[in-house]
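Cross-posted from the bioinformatics board.
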Amino acid sequence: MSTPRQLAARRQLLRRLGLITPSMLVLAVFLVAPLAIMLLVSFLQPGDYGGVKWGQYSAEAYINFLYERDLDDSLVFNTDYLGIFQRSLGLAVMTTLGCLLIGFPTALYLALQSEKKRNLLLFLVTVPFWTNLLVRVYAWILLLRNGGLIDSGLGLIGLGDGALGILYSDAAVMIGLLYTFLPFMVLPIYTSLEKLDWRLVEAAFDLGANRFQALKRIILPLALPGMLAGTTLVFIPALGNYIIPELLGGGKALMIGNLVQLQFGSAHNWPLGSALAFALFSLVLLALLFNGLRQRRSTEVRI
Amino acid sequence: MNLQGPLWRFTGVRPAAWVFFAFLYVPILVLVALSFNSGQSATLWQGFSLKWYSVVANDAEILRAAKNSLIVATLATLISTCLATLAALGMHGPRFRGQGAIQGVLGLPLLVPDIVCAVAILMFFAFIGLKLSLLTILIAHIVFCTPFAYLPIRARLQGMDPRLLEAAADLYASPWRAFWRISFPLLLPGILSGAMLAFIISMDDFVITYFVAGAGSTTLPIYIFSSIRMGISPKINAISTIMLLISIAFVALSYYIGQRKR
Protein backbone atom coordinates (compact mmCIF):
# COMPACT_ATOMS: atom_id res chain seq x y z
CA MET A 1 0.00 0.00 0.00
CA SER A 2 1.28 3.43 -0.89
CA THR A 3 0.91 6.12 1.64
CA PRO A 4 -0.47 9.48 0.47
CA ARG A 5 3.00 10.88 0.91
CA GLN A 6 4.46 8.29 -1.47
CA LEU A 7 1.71 8.99 -3.98
CA ALA A 8 2.43 12.69 -3.86
CA ALA A 9 6.14 12.04 -4.33
CA ARG A 10 5.41 9.84 -7.35
CA ARG A 11 3.12 12.47 -8.86
CA GLN A 12 5.81 15.07 -8.31
CA LEU A 13 8.42 12.86 -10.02
CA LEU A 14 6.11 12.25 -12.98
CA ARG A 15 5.57 15.98 -13.36
CA ARG A 16 9.32 16.59 -13.32
CA LEU A 17 9.90 13.88 -15.92
CA GLY A 18 7.19 15.46 -18.04
CA LEU A 19 9.08 18.76 -17.94
CA ILE A 20 12.33 17.07 -18.97
CA THR A 21 10.83 14.94 -21.76
CA PRO A 22 10.62 17.53 -24.60
CA SER A 23 14.32 18.45 -24.48
CA MET A 24 15.32 14.80 -24.03
CA LEU A 25 13.27 13.82 -27.07
CA VAL A 26 14.89 16.51 -29.23
CA LEU A 27 18.42 15.64 -28.10
CA ALA A 28 17.85 11.87 -28.33
CA VAL A 29 16.43 12.02 -31.85
CA PHE A 30 18.70 14.68 -33.31
CA LEU A 31 21.98 14.08 -31.47
CA VAL A 32 22.22 10.72 -29.67
CA ALA A 33 20.66 8.77 -32.56
CA PRO A 34 22.85 10.49 -35.19
CA LEU A 35 25.98 9.73 -33.13
CA ALA A 36 24.93 6.07 -32.82
CA ILE A 37 24.29 5.95 -36.58
CA MET A 38 27.71 7.49 -37.16
CA LEU A 39 29.32 4.66 -35.17
CA LEU A 40 27.38 2.13 -37.25
CA VAL A 41 28.32 3.82 -40.52
CA SER A 42 32.00 3.61 -39.63
CA PHE A 43 31.67 -0.19 -39.92
CA LEU A 44 29.94 -0.13 -43.33
CA GLN A 45 31.21 -0.10 -46.90
CA PRO A 46 31.18 3.24 -48.71
CA GLY A 47 28.63 3.72 -51.49
CA ASP A 48 29.91 4.54 -54.94
CA TYR A 49 28.72 8.16 -54.96
CA GLY A 50 28.59 9.03 -51.27
CA GLY A 51 26.25 7.31 -48.84
CA VAL A 52 26.83 3.76 -47.68
CA LYS A 53 26.02 0.19 -48.63
CA TRP A 54 23.72 -1.01 -45.87
CA GLY A 55 24.26 -4.48 -44.53
CA GLN A 56 27.83 -4.79 -45.78
CA TYR A 57 29.87 -4.62 -42.64
CA SER A 58 33.63 -4.26 -42.62
CA ALA A 59 36.40 -2.72 -40.59
CA GLU A 60 37.84 -1.25 -43.79
CA ALA A 61 37.47 2.34 -42.55
CA TYR A 62 39.58 1.62 -39.49
CA ILE A 63 42.11 -0.37 -41.52
CA ASN A 64 42.35 2.62 -43.86
CA PHE A 65 43.62 4.55 -40.90
CA LEU A 66 46.94 2.79 -40.96
CA TYR A 67 47.09 0.95 -44.25
CA GLU A 68 46.42 1.61 -47.89
CA ARG A 69 45.16 -1.11 -50.22
CA ASP A 70 47.60 -1.67 -53.05
CA LEU A 71 46.53 -2.70 -56.56
CA ASP A 72 47.01 -6.38 -55.76
CA ASP A 73 44.86 -5.99 -52.60
CA SER A 74 47.83 -6.26 -50.23
CA LEU A 75 47.95 -3.78 -47.34
CA VAL A 76 50.68 -1.17 -47.35
CA PHE A 77 51.49 0.79 -44.24
CA ASN A 78 50.43 4.40 -44.72
CA THR A 79 51.12 7.18 -42.25
CA ASP A 80 49.18 9.96 -44.01
CA TYR A 81 46.19 9.94 -41.66
CA LEU A 82 48.28 9.17 -38.61
CA GLY A 83 50.47 12.13 -39.53
CA ILE A 84 47.45 14.44 -39.58
CA PHE A 85 46.31 13.12 -36.18
CA GLN A 86 49.80 13.69 -34.88
CA ARG A 87 49.90 17.24 -36.26
CA SER A 88 46.48 17.99 -34.74
CA LEU A 89 47.55 16.67 -31.36
CA GLY A 90 50.84 18.58 -31.58
CA LEU A 91 49.13 21.85 -32.51
CA ALA A 92 46.51 21.39 -29.77
CA VAL A 93 49.18 20.68 -27.13
CA MET A 94 51.29 23.66 -28.26
CA THR A 95 48.20 25.89 -28.20
CA THR A 96 47.37 24.73 -24.68
CA LEU A 97 50.93 25.37 -23.47
CA GLY A 98 51.00 28.79 -25.12
CA CYS A 99 47.66 29.66 -23.53
CA LEU A 100 48.97 28.61 -20.10
CA LEU A 101 52.13 30.67 -20.59
CA ILE A 102 50.28 33.89 -21.47
CA GLY A 103 47.05 33.10 -19.64
CA PHE A 104 48.40 32.55 -16.14
CA PRO A 105 50.23 35.89 -15.78
CA THR A 106 47.27 37.68 -17.34
CA ALA A 107 44.86 36.07 -14.89
CA LEU A 108 47.19 36.94 -12.01
CA TYR A 109 47.36 40.54 -13.21
CA LEU A 110 43.55 40.69 -13.36
CA ALA A 111 43.21 39.23 -9.86
CA LEU A 112 45.58 41.84 -8.41
CA GLN A 113 43.67 44.87 -9.79
CA SER A 114 41.17 47.03 -7.94
CA GLU A 115 37.58 45.88 -8.37
CA LYS A 116 36.56 48.64 -10.77
CA LYS A 117 39.48 48.14 -13.13
CA ARG A 118 39.09 44.38 -12.85
CA ASN A 119 35.47 44.48 -14.03
CA LEU A 120 36.42 46.51 -17.08
CA LEU A 121 39.29 44.18 -17.96
CA LEU A 122 37.10 41.10 -17.46
CA PHE A 123 34.56 42.65 -19.78
CA LEU A 124 37.33 43.04 -22.38
CA VAL A 125 38.33 39.39 -21.96
CA THR A 126 34.77 38.21 -22.59
CA VAL A 127 34.05 40.33 -25.69
CA PRO A 128 35.77 37.89 -28.09
CA PHE A 129 33.51 35.08 -26.79
CA TRP A 130 30.60 36.91 -28.31
CA THR A 131 32.15 37.89 -31.60
CA ASN A 132 32.09 35.72 -34.67
CA LEU A 133 35.07 33.39 -35.04
CA LEU A 134 35.16 33.84 -38.83
CA VAL A 135 35.43 37.59 -38.39
CA ARG A 136 38.33 37.26 -35.98
CA VAL A 137 40.14 34.76 -38.21
CA TYR A 138 39.60 37.07 -41.17
CA ALA A 139 41.26 39.90 -39.23
CA TRP A 140 44.35 37.71 -38.93
CA ILE A 141 44.36 37.05 -42.67
CA LEU A 142 44.53 40.83 -43.18
CA LEU A 143 47.52 40.98 -40.85
CA LEU A 144 49.44 37.89 -41.93
CA ARG A 145 49.12 37.72 -45.69
CA ASN A 146 51.95 38.59 -48.03
CA GLY A 147 51.75 42.34 -48.55
CA GLY A 148 49.46 42.49 -45.50
CA LEU A 149 49.94 44.78 -42.53
CA ILE A 150 52.72 42.93 -40.71
CA ASP A 151 54.53 42.41 -43.99
CA SER A 152 54.32 46.06 -45.09
CA GLY A 153 55.18 47.16 -41.52
CA LEU A 154 58.34 45.08 -41.64
CA GLY A 155 59.03 46.48 -45.11
CA LEU A 156 58.85 50.04 -43.76
CA ILE A 157 61.63 49.37 -41.26
CA GLY A 158 63.57 47.53 -43.93
CA LEU A 159 63.11 43.96 -42.71
CA GLY A 160 60.48 42.51 -45.02
CA ASP A 161 60.64 41.88 -48.71
CA GLY A 162 56.93 41.57 -49.41
CA ALA A 163 56.94 37.81 -48.97
CA LEU A 164 56.26 37.13 -45.32
CA GLY A 165 55.07 33.59 -46.05
CA ILE A 166 53.37 33.02 -42.69
CA LEU A 167 49.80 32.72 -43.95
CA TYR A 168 48.88 29.16 -45.01
CA SER A 169 51.41 27.51 -42.72
CA ASP A 170 51.44 25.73 -39.35
CA ALA A 171 52.62 28.99 -37.76
CA ALA A 172 49.48 30.81 -38.96
CA VAL A 173 47.25 28.01 -37.68
CA MET A 174 49.06 28.15 -34.34
CA ILE A 175 48.56 31.93 -34.06
CA GLY A 176 44.89 31.52 -34.95
CA LEU A 177 44.33 28.77 -32.37
CA LEU A 178 46.18 30.70 -29.66
CA TYR A 179 44.21 33.84 -30.42
CA THR A 180 40.87 32.04 -30.38
CA PHE A 181 41.32 30.02 -27.20
CA LEU A 182 43.33 32.36 -24.92
CA PRO A 183 40.21 33.76 -23.17
CA PHE A 184 39.14 30.16 -22.43
CA MET A 185 42.32 29.82 -20.37
CA VAL A 186 42.33 33.22 -18.69
CA LEU A 187 38.78 33.06 -17.30
CA PRO A 188 38.98 29.75 -15.36
CA ILE A 189 42.41 30.61 -13.94
CA TYR A 190 41.09 34.01 -12.91
CA THR A 191 38.10 32.33 -11.25
CA SER A 192 40.34 30.17 -9.06
CA LEU A 193 42.67 33.09 -8.26
CA GLU A 194 39.68 35.24 -7.33
CA LYS A 195 38.69 32.74 -4.64
CA LEU A 196 42.25 32.57 -3.35
CA ASP A 197 42.74 33.77 0.20
CA TRP A 198 45.46 36.40 -0.31
CA ARG A 199 46.25 36.37 3.40
CA LEU A 200 48.08 33.10 2.73
CA VAL A 201 50.39 34.93 0.35
CA GLU A 202 50.78 37.75 2.86
CA ALA A 203 51.67 35.20 5.54
CA ALA A 204 54.30 33.75 3.22
CA PHE A 205 55.78 37.22 2.71
CA ASP A 206 55.78 37.77 6.48
CA LEU A 207 57.63 34.51 6.93
CA GLY A 208 60.35 35.77 4.62
CA ALA A 209 59.33 34.19 1.32
CA ASN A 210 60.27 36.17 -1.75
CA ARG A 211 57.83 36.75 -4.58
CA PHE A 212 59.04 33.81 -6.61
CA GLN A 213 58.66 31.42 -3.66
CA ALA A 214 55.19 32.75 -2.86
CA LEU A 215 54.23 32.26 -6.49
CA LYS A 216 55.61 28.74 -6.69
CA ARG A 217 54.54 27.44 -3.30
CA ILE A 218 51.17 29.15 -2.83
CA ILE A 219 49.66 30.84 -5.85
CA LEU A 220 50.48 28.21 -8.49
CA PRO A 221 49.17 25.20 -6.51
CA LEU A 222 45.97 27.04 -5.64
CA ALA A 223 45.49 28.10 -9.27
CA LEU A 224 45.90 24.51 -10.45
CA PRO A 225 42.16 23.63 -10.66
CA GLY A 226 41.62 26.67 -12.88
CA MET A 227 44.60 25.74 -15.02
CA LEU A 228 43.26 22.21 -15.46
CA ALA A 229 39.79 23.47 -16.36
CA GLY A 230 41.35 25.92 -18.81
CA THR A 231 43.47 23.16 -20.33
CA THR A 232 40.34 21.11 -21.07
CA LEU A 233 38.49 24.14 -22.44
CA VAL A 234 41.37 24.97 -24.78
CA PHE A 235 42.60 21.52 -25.77
CA ILE A 236 39.27 19.99 -26.82
CA PRO A 237 38.03 22.67 -29.24
CA ALA A 238 41.56 23.26 -30.54
CA LEU A 239 41.93 19.58 -31.42
CA GLY A 240 38.69 19.41 -33.40
CA ASN A 241 38.89 22.83 -34.98
CA TYR A 242 37.88 23.12 -38.60
CA ILE A 243 37.69 26.83 -39.43
CA ILE A 244 41.19 27.93 -38.42
CA PRO A 245 43.22 25.32 -40.35
CA GLU A 246 40.84 25.74 -43.28
CA LEU A 247 41.28 29.53 -43.55
CA LEU A 248 44.74 30.14 -42.06
CA GLY A 249 46.26 26.80 -43.09
CA GLY A 250 44.92 27.17 -46.60
CA GLY A 251 44.21 23.46 -47.05
CA LYS A 252 47.90 22.64 -46.62
CA ALA A 253 48.19 22.37 -42.85
CA LEU A 254 45.31 19.92 -42.39
CA MET A 255 43.90 18.96 -39.01
CA ILE A 256 41.48 16.16 -38.09
CA GLY A 257 38.45 18.37 -38.66
CA ASN A 258 39.47 19.12 -42.27
CA LEU A 259 40.15 15.45 -42.92
CA VAL A 260 36.64 14.57 -41.71
CA GLN A 261 35.13 17.27 -43.91
CA LEU A 262 37.03 15.98 -46.96
CA GLN A 263 35.47 12.52 -46.61
CA PHE A 264 31.99 14.04 -46.76
CA GLY A 265 32.94 16.40 -49.56
CA SER A 266 35.09 15.44 -52.50
CA ALA A 267 36.28 12.02 -51.24
CA HIS A 268 32.75 10.56 -50.83
CA ASN A 269 33.85 8.12 -48.16
CA TRP A 270 31.30 8.37 -45.37
CA PRO A 271 32.52 5.30 -43.44
CA LEU A 272 36.06 6.67 -43.27
CA GLY A 273 34.73 10.12 -42.34
CA SER A 274 32.62 8.55 -39.58
CA ALA A 275 35.57 6.51 -38.31
CA LEU A 276 37.76 9.64 -38.22
CA ALA A 277 35.02 11.65 -36.48
CA PHE A 278 34.57 8.86 -33.98
CA ALA A 279 38.32 8.74 -33.32
CA LEU A 280 38.29 12.51 -32.71
CA PHE A 281 35.35 12.18 -30.32
CA SER A 282 37.17 9.38 -28.46
CA LEU A 283 40.24 11.58 -28.04
CA VAL A 284 38.00 14.28 -26.57
CA LEU A 285 36.36 11.81 -24.18
CA LEU A 286 39.80 10.56 -23.13
CA ALA A 287 40.93 14.11 -22.40
CA LEU A 288 37.78 14.69 -20.32
CA LEU A 289 38.23 11.42 -18.44
CA PHE A 290 41.86 12.31 -17.70
CA ASN A 291 40.82 15.72 -16.43
CA GLY A 292 38.03 14.21 -14.31
CA LEU A 293 40.43 11.75 -12.70
CA ARG A 294 42.98 14.48 -12.03
CA GLN A 295 40.32 16.65 -10.44
CA ARG A 296 39.01 13.82 -8.26
CA ARG A 297 42.54 13.06 -7.10
CA SER A 298 43.30 16.69 -6.31
CA THR A 299 40.12 17.06 -4.21
CA GLU A 300 40.97 13.83 -2.37
CA VAL A 301 44.37 15.23 -1.50
CA ARG A 302 42.83 18.36 -0.05
CA ILE A 303 40.42 16.41 2.17
CA MET B 1 42.16 43.29 1.15
CA ASN B 2 44.67 45.72 -0.22
CA LEU B 3 46.79 44.06 -2.86
CA GLN B 4 48.70 47.18 -3.81
CA GLY B 5 52.27 47.99 -2.94
CA PRO B 6 55.63 46.94 -4.34
CA LEU B 7 55.60 43.46 -2.79
CA TRP B 8 52.54 42.51 -4.87
CA ARG B 9 54.08 43.42 -8.22
CA PHE B 10 55.14 40.13 -9.70
CA THR B 11 57.77 40.63 -12.36
CA GLY B 12 56.54 40.14 -15.89
CA VAL B 13 52.88 39.91 -14.97
CA ARG B 14 51.93 43.35 -16.21
CA PRO B 15 53.77 43.07 -19.55
CA ALA B 16 52.19 39.64 -20.14
CA ALA B 17 48.76 41.13 -19.55
CA TRP B 18 49.52 43.96 -21.98
CA VAL B 19 50.69 41.48 -24.60
CA PHE B 20 47.47 39.54 -24.03
CA PHE B 21 45.19 42.52 -24.53
CA ALA B 22 47.15 43.83 -27.51
CA PHE B 23 47.07 40.37 -29.10
CA LEU B 24 43.33 40.20 -28.51
CA TYR B 25 42.38 43.64 -29.77
CA VAL B 26 44.89 44.83 -32.37
CA PRO B 27 43.53 42.55 -35.14
CA ILE B 28 39.97 43.62 -34.38
CA LEU B 29 40.86 47.33 -34.36
CA VAL B 30 42.79 46.98 -37.63
CA LEU B 31 39.80 45.28 -39.22
CA VAL B 32 37.41 48.01 -38.07
CA ALA B 33 39.74 50.78 -39.26
CA LEU B 34 40.18 49.19 -42.67
CA SER B 35 36.43 48.89 -43.16
CA PHE B 36 36.37 52.70 -43.56
CA ASN B 37 38.93 52.56 -46.37
CA SER B 38 37.88 54.34 -49.56
CA GLY B 39 40.04 52.32 -51.97
CA GLN B 40 39.56 48.93 -53.57
CA SER B 41 42.28 47.30 -51.47
CA ALA B 42 41.40 45.45 -48.27
CA THR B 43 44.71 46.27 -46.58
CA LEU B 44 46.09 49.46 -48.19
CA TRP B 45 44.77 52.66 -46.59
CA GLN B 46 43.64 55.25 -49.14
CA GLY B 47 41.35 57.56 -47.21
CA PHE B 48 38.18 57.59 -45.13
CA SER B 49 34.85 56.63 -46.64
CA LEU B 50 31.62 54.83 -45.77
CA LYS B 51 31.39 53.53 -49.32
CA TRP B 52 31.69 49.83 -48.43
CA TYR B 53 28.87 50.06 -45.91
CA SER B 54 26.50 51.26 -48.60
CA VAL B 55 27.75 48.47 -50.87
CA VAL B 56 26.90 45.97 -48.12
CA ALA B 57 23.50 47.57 -47.44
CA ASN B 58 22.56 47.28 -51.13
CA ASP B 59 23.83 43.76 -51.73
CA ALA B 60 20.78 41.50 -52.19
CA GLU B 61 22.77 38.35 -51.45
CA ILE B 62 24.06 39.67 -48.11
CA LEU B 63 20.60 40.88 -47.11
CA ARG B 64 19.09 37.48 -47.91
CA ALA B 65 21.81 35.74 -45.87
CA ALA B 66 21.20 38.15 -42.97
CA LYS B 67 17.46 37.46 -43.15
CA ASN B 68 18.06 33.69 -43.07
CA SER B 69 20.41 34.07 -40.09
CA LEU B 70 17.88 36.17 -38.20
CA ILE B 71 14.99 33.78 -38.89
CA VAL B 72 16.99 30.73 -37.77
CA ALA B 73 18.50 32.45 -34.71
CA THR B 74 15.16 33.84 -33.53
CA LEU B 75 13.29 30.54 -33.86
CA ALA B 76 16.19 28.48 -32.46
CA THR B 77 16.42 30.86 -29.48
CA LEU B 78 12.70 30.71 -28.73
CA ILE B 79 12.44 26.94 -29.00
CA SER B 80 15.71 26.05 -27.25
CA THR B 81 15.03 28.51 -24.40
CA CYS B 82 11.58 26.96 -23.83
CA LEU B 83 13.05 23.44 -23.88
CA ALA B 84 15.87 24.52 -21.56
CA THR B 85 13.54 26.27 -19.10
CA LEU B 86 11.28 23.21 -18.84
CA ALA B 87 14.29 20.92 -18.43
CA ALA B 88 15.83 23.15 -15.75
CA LEU B 89 12.54 23.17 -13.80
CA GLY B 90 12.31 19.38 -14.09
CA MET B 91 15.91 18.85 -12.99
CA HIS B 92 15.42 21.05 -9.92
CA GLY B 93 14.55 19.22 -6.72
CA PRO B 94 15.52 15.99 -4.96
CA ARG B 95 17.71 13.68 -7.08
CA PHE B 96 16.05 10.75 -8.79
CA ARG B 97 17.46 7.63 -10.47
CA GLY B 98 18.78 8.34 -13.94
CA GLN B 99 19.14 12.06 -13.36
CA GLY B 100 22.89 11.82 -13.99
CA ALA B 101 22.31 10.28 -17.41
CA ILE B 102 19.79 13.01 -18.30
CA GLN B 103 22.28 15.65 -17.16
CA GLY B 104 24.88 14.01 -19.42
CA VAL B 105 22.62 14.10 -22.47
CA LEU B 106 21.76 17.75 -21.78
CA GLY B 107 25.47 18.62 -21.74
CA LEU B 108 26.37 16.37 -24.67
CA PRO B 109 26.25 19.09 -27.36
CA LEU B 110 28.96 20.93 -25.42
CA LEU B 111 31.25 17.88 -25.40
CA VAL B 112 30.92 16.73 -28.98
CA PRO B 113 33.31 18.63 -31.27
CA ASP B 114 31.20 20.64 -33.72
CA ILE B 115 32.61 18.89 -36.78
CA VAL B 116 31.55 15.52 -35.32
CA CYS B 117 28.10 16.89 -34.48
CA ALA B 118 27.87 18.32 -38.01
CA VAL B 119 28.62 15.11 -39.91
CA ALA B 120 26.46 12.97 -37.59
CA ILE B 121 23.44 15.22 -38.09
CA LEU B 122 24.13 15.49 -41.83
CA MET B 123 24.12 11.69 -42.23
CA PHE B 124 20.99 11.42 -40.09
CA PHE B 125 19.12 13.86 -42.35
CA ALA B 126 20.39 12.02 -45.44
CA PHE B 127 19.22 8.64 -44.11
CA ILE B 128 15.75 9.79 -43.08
CA GLY B 129 15.44 11.56 -46.41
CA LEU B 130 14.97 15.09 -45.08
CA LYS B 131 15.96 17.61 -47.74
CA LEU B 132 18.55 20.14 -46.57
CA SER B 133 16.96 23.55 -46.08
CA LEU B 134 16.44 26.26 -43.47
CA LEU B 135 14.46 23.66 -41.48
CA THR B 136 17.45 21.33 -41.16
CA ILE B 137 19.60 24.29 -40.06
CA LEU B 138 16.96 25.20 -37.48
CA ILE B 139 16.82 21.66 -36.06
CA ALA B 140 20.62 21.49 -35.72
CA HIS B 141 20.70 24.92 -34.07
CA ILE B 142 18.03 23.92 -31.53
CA VAL B 143 20.21 20.93 -30.59
CA PHE B 144 23.38 22.87 -29.85
CA CYS B 145 21.69 25.98 -28.42
CA THR B 146 19.74 24.07 -25.76
CA PRO B 147 22.65 23.45 -23.31
CA PHE B 148 23.80 27.06 -23.65
CA ALA B 149 20.32 28.25 -22.71
CA TYR B 150 20.01 25.59 -20.00
CA LEU B 151 23.13 26.40 -17.96
CA PRO B 152 22.29 29.99 -16.85
CA ILE B 153 18.68 29.02 -16.06
CA ARG B 154 19.80 26.05 -13.99
CA ALA B 155 22.35 28.19 -12.14
CA ARG B 156 19.66 30.75 -11.37
CA LEU B 157 17.28 28.04 -10.10
CA GLN B 158 19.93 26.64 -7.80
CA GLY B 159 20.31 30.05 -6.22
CA MET B 160 16.56 30.32 -5.57
CA ASP B 161 15.21 30.03 -2.02
CA PRO B 162 13.11 26.79 -1.93
CA ARG B 163 11.07 28.18 0.96
CA LEU B 164 9.36 30.60 -1.43
CA LEU B 165 7.71 27.73 -3.31
CA GLU B 166 6.89 25.93 -0.05
CA ALA B 167 5.21 29.09 1.20
CA ALA B 168 3.23 29.34 -2.04
CA ALA B 169 2.10 25.72 -1.66
CA ASP B 170 1.11 26.36 1.96
CA LEU B 171 -1.02 29.24 0.73
CA TYR B 172 -2.81 26.88 -1.70
CA ALA B 173 -1.22 28.17 -4.89
CA SER B 174 -1.42 25.62 -7.70
CA PRO B 175 1.98 24.63 -9.20
CA TRP B 176 1.00 26.54 -12.36
CA ARG B 177 0.20 29.69 -10.39
CA ALA B 178 3.31 29.32 -8.23
CA PHE B 179 5.43 29.08 -11.36
CA TRP B 180 4.08 32.27 -12.94
CA ARG B 181 3.96 34.29 -9.71
CA ILE B 182 7.21 33.15 -8.09
CA SER B 183 9.60 31.01 -10.12
CA PHE B 184 9.24 32.80 -13.44
CA PRO B 185 9.93 36.38 -12.23
CA LEU B 186 12.92 35.14 -10.23
CA LEU B 187 14.18 33.07 -13.14
CA LEU B 188 13.72 35.80 -15.72
CA PRO B 189 17.32 37.11 -15.63
CA GLY B 190 18.60 33.54 -16.09
CA ILE B 191 16.16 32.91 -18.93
CA LEU B 192 17.16 36.19 -20.59
CA SER B 193 20.88 35.51 -20.40
CA GLY B 194 20.29 31.94 -21.60
CA ALA B 195 18.27 33.23 -24.53
CA MET B 196 20.91 35.82 -25.44
CA LEU B 197 23.64 33.20 -25.32
CA ALA B 198 21.57 30.90 -27.55
CA PHE B 199 20.89 33.73 -30.01
CA ILE B 200 24.56 34.70 -30.35
CA ILE B 201 25.70 31.07 -30.61
CA SER B 202 23.14 30.48 -33.33
CA MET B 203 23.98 33.69 -35.24
CA ASP B 204 27.70 32.86 -35.13
CA ASP B 205 27.67 29.17 -35.90
CA PHE B 206 29.44 28.24 -39.06
CA VAL B 207 30.64 24.63 -38.99
CA ILE B 208 27.38 22.80 -38.27
CA THR B 209 25.34 25.18 -40.44
CA TYR B 210 27.77 24.71 -43.34
CA PHE B 211 27.13 20.96 -43.36
CA VAL B 212 23.35 20.98 -42.98
CA ALA B 213 22.55 24.01 -45.16
CA GLY B 214 20.87 23.28 -48.45
CA ALA B 215 21.44 25.26 -51.62
CA GLY B 216 19.84 28.68 -51.27
CA SER B 217 19.75 28.63 -47.47
CA THR B 218 22.92 30.66 -46.98
CA THR B 219 23.38 32.25 -43.58
CA LEU B 220 25.63 35.22 -42.82
CA PRO B 221 28.60 33.14 -41.54
CA ILE B 222 28.38 30.90 -44.63
CA TYR B 223 28.34 33.99 -46.85
CA ILE B 224 31.41 35.39 -45.06
CA PHE B 225 33.25 32.07 -45.29
CA SER B 226 32.70 31.72 -49.01
CA SER B 227 33.69 35.35 -49.63
CA ILE B 228 36.91 34.93 -47.62
CA ARG B 229 37.73 31.86 -49.70
CA MET B 230 37.31 33.90 -52.88
CA GLY B 231 39.78 36.46 -51.59
CA ILE B 232 39.81 39.36 -49.17
CA SER B 233 37.88 42.50 -50.05
CA PRO B 234 36.86 45.75 -48.32
CA LYS B 235 33.26 44.50 -48.50
CA ILE B 236 34.12 41.67 -46.07
CA ASN B 237 35.80 44.26 -43.81
CA ALA B 238 32.57 46.25 -43.66
CA ILE B 239 30.25 43.31 -43.07
CA SER B 240 32.63 41.89 -40.43
CA THR B 241 32.61 45.23 -38.63
CA ILE B 242 28.81 45.26 -38.63
CA MET B 243 28.76 41.77 -37.10
CA LEU B 244 31.33 42.85 -34.49
CA LEU B 245 29.19 45.84 -33.52
CA ILE B 246 26.08 43.67 -33.15
CA SER B 247 27.99 41.27 -30.90
CA ILE B 248 29.41 44.07 -28.77
CA ALA B 249 25.94 45.60 -28.42
CA PHE B 250 24.79 42.21 -27.13
CA VAL B 251 27.60 41.95 -24.56
CA ALA B 252 26.86 45.46 -23.34
CA LEU B 253 23.18 44.54 -23.01
CA SER B 254 23.90 41.36 -21.05
CA TYR B 255 26.35 43.28 -18.88
CA TYR B 256 23.63 45.84 -18.18
CA ILE B 257 21.10 43.14 -17.27
CA GLY B 258 23.70 41.51 -15.03
CA GLN B 259 24.37 44.81 -13.26
CA ARG B 260 20.68 45.52 -12.70
CA LYS B 261 20.17 42.08 -11.19
CA ARG B 262 22.37 43.00 -8.24
